[in-house]
Design goal:
Order of helices and strands: EEEHEEHEEEEEHHHEHHEHEE
Number of strands: 14
Shape: globular
CATH class: Alpha Beta
Strand order of the largest sheet: 6-5-4-3-2-1-14
Number of helices: 8
Radius of gyration: 19 Å
Largest sheet: 7 strands, mixed
């Protein structure tokens, strides 16, 4: 199983010299497994992914499965700029949550109305199959994509790929602090002793349990979170608390804040590692970078 990061930023693309290390494109992660191409989210990073497909496979015959965690702009804004979508002969299966009132195709087409974009969804010549998911999706050849609802305004979903005993999780836009119910008389949210198995949504620890790789939203420092509670993103200590409880093996810190330079992301990674060391927890932890490839 190969995992490649094409976009690691949250909220809005942030190109420039201050984000060269971790990248400025918004969320897009590719997984290659069982001879299949699986894509998580369509942030601005999917544009470069599409160009790479042309270089590798040519212009036609591409087939991929696209899972969309939710339709906030930073997770779909790259979709109209995905070049293979405009080529006849390519096939894409697009999975969106069944809990939304509108279909995933109508939500994607909303940002491609003439007021916002010169091409319509119907102008995409590739073959698209839109599917709603509930609990799990069987892609064949022993490849299962499990889904789980996360903590995020408007709803977001995480995805766990299971194949031949390996487990990779993509769980961005997940405000774990709310589930942990950190208590502080003054601020309302502060790191302290909690038992995630008693405070989180009951399905979340089993969902994360034993992951070989977890790609997780860790957008805020603990100090920042005090001022951004309920915005839909997690603090460093919240993520570390849950990952330790779930016995995760590797953690990719993801969905970097647009206000965070490479230096700040470096500091967040160091804070995460220090938290683990203080608690004698051994999880390989690093910041997700555009272009990074991991073999699982």
């Amino acid at each position: 199983m190969l995992v490649k990061f094409w976009g690691t930023r949250g909220s809005i693309p942030t190109p420039g010299r201050l984000t060269e290390k971790y990248g400025g494109n918004t969320s897009c992660v590719e997984v290659r497994v069982a001879g299949k191409l699986v894509i998580f989210d369509c942030g601005s990073g999917i544009r470069d992914l599409g160009i790479s497909y042309f270089e590798e496979f040519g212009t036609t015959g591409i087939e991929a499965h696209i899972f969309i965690s939710h339709t906030h702009w930073d997770h779909i804004q790259g979709f109209p700029f995905f070049p293979p979508a405009f080529v006849q002969g390519n096939t894409f299966y697009v999975y969106g949550t069944a809990a939304r009132r509108a279909s995933i195709s109508s939500l994607l087409s909303g940002q491609m109305q003439p007021e916002y974009f010169p091409a319509k969804l119907d102008d995409m010549a590739a073959s698209f199959h839109y599917r709603a998911f509930k609990d799990a999706v069987d892609l064949g050849d022993g490849l299962i994509v499990e889904t789980a609802e996360l903590y995020h305004p408007g709803m977001s979903h995480g995805f766990a790929i299971h194949h031949e005993g390996k487990k990779v999780i993509y769980a961005t836009d997940n405000e774990l602090n709310l589930g942990l119910k950190f208590k502080d008389d003054n601020a309302g949210y502060s790191a302290g002793y909690v038992n995630p198995r008693e405070t989180l949504l009951p399905h979340l620890i089993p969902f994360f349990e034993g992951a070989d790789l977890l790609i997780a939203d860790c957008q805020y420092t603990d100090e920042e979170y005090l001022h951004k509670a309920t915005w839909g993103h997690a603090s460093v200590s919240a993520v570390m608390t849950v990952m330790a409880e779930a016995n995760v093996k590797r953690l990719a810190i993801f969905h970097h804040d647009p206000l965070h330079s490479d230096r700040v992301v470096d500091e967040i990674v160091v804070d995460a590692k220090n938290y683990l060391l203080r608690n004698e927890i051994y999880i390989d932890t690093f910041g997700a970078r555009e272009g990074m490839v991991l073999k699982i």
